[in-house]
Amino acid sequence: MLQNNLENSGRPDQDSCKMNKLARRTMESKASNKEGAKPGYLFVITSSNQLFSGTGTAIFEWIRYAKDSYAFAIAIDNSNPKNFKICLEFCRNEAIPILVSGPAQRRGAADPGVADSLEYVRQGQWKIVEIVSWANSATNLDVLASIREDQILVYTPHTQPTWTIPGAENLYLLEPAFEAAIRAADIVCCDSPAELDKLKRLANTSNCIYSPLAVNTDRFKPPASHKKSKEVLLIADFREIRKRTDLAVNAMVRLMRRNPNATAALAGRGSEEVELPIEFGSRFKQHGYVNDNELVKLYQNSGVFLLLSDFEAFGIPIAEALSCGTPVVTTENPEMSSLYQGLAGCTLVDNKDEDAIDSAVDEALGNSDPQLIAKAAHEKFGLHAAFKRKSERLQELIERKLEAPQTRGQILGSARAK
What we know:
With 418 residues, this protein is of the alpha/beta class. It contains 15 helices and 13 strands.
C-alpha cells in the first residue's frame, strides 16, 4: 500500500500526494509503451543517505544532465525528515515524479529501507533502475528481489570502509548485500580509478566503469572580478568523525600562530558548534550549513581549501573548490591519489604529518593560479567529462536489449566471460 507521509507526520501531505499522482501518471504512460517515448529511469534511494553531500550531488546532477534522454523518477522513504525534504524540493524544482514510501527496516542493515520498492520497481515501466550506496543493505536487497529481467540495473556504491559506520560490527548484511548488488548490476559506477580496480577484482566482471562525480562548471568557477583572499576554508559535516575536522582546525590554528594576519572559515553541518581557542576565536568565521550560492562564494573567496579526512570515496568539495580556482590540501590515500595526484592546485599529504600539512598550506597561499587550477578541474570533472562513459554504457545496454533480449543471468554471464 502506498504511503504518502510527509517527513514523519503520518498523514499524507497535499504536495506529496500530488507528486505521487504525477508519478503514477508517468508509470501509466510508460505502460502504454508509445514509440519514441523516453526510457523510464527510477532511482530507489533511502532517506538515510546524506543528500546534502556528494551522494545527493551525484544523483541530482546526473538527473539534470540526462533528463532530456530519460524519464526520471525517485522512490524514497520518509523516515529522515532532512534528507526527504531535500529530495522533495529537488523533485518539485525539476518536475521529477517522487514516489514516497514508509521505511522497511531489516535487522543487520544500516538503512531504513523503502517499504514499497517492490511495487514501484515491478509496476512501473522503468527501463532502468538505479540503486546507490554500499551501505543501503535493506533498500538494495529489496530492489534486487524485485528487479525484472528486462530492466537495466545501475549501482553507484560510493564504497567506503565498514569502520566509517558506527556499530558496523552488528550490521551483518553490509557485505553480502554489497557484493550481491555488484554482481547483479549491469553497470557499477565507480567514483575513482582506485574503487574501479577494487570492485573489478571483487566482482570478477566487466560491468564496472569509472564514472566520477560531476561538477556544474557554470556555477563552480573562479571569481570574475576580484582577487582571492588568503583565508583558509574547511567545508564538511563536522559531526562525521572520519572527516577529521579536528586535524584541519588544528592546522588553521598553527597557521594563525605563524601568521598574525591569517584567517579561517568553517562551514557545513555542525561547524557553528565547534569550540575554538579563545585567543584565535575572532579570526574564525563559523557559517554553519550554507546554501548553494553561499557555498560557491566561500570557495571563490578562499585562498586554500583544507580537508584532512581519514577517508573520502571522492570528496566532492575538493573538486568543487578546484573548479572555483582554489588550491586544495587534502589527505593522501589510494582513492584520492587516483583522482587528484598531479592535478593542478591539489596537494596530497599524510593527515597526521603536521609539518607536511603546514608546508603545503603555506605554499598554496603563496603561489597559485586560479584560472589554471579551474581549467584542469573543469576538464576532468565537468558534467560531460564525468558522465560520458555512463551515458555511453547505458545506450549500449539499451540497444543490446532491444536487438537481442537476454536474461539477467545471460548478461552477467557474458560480462564475466570478457
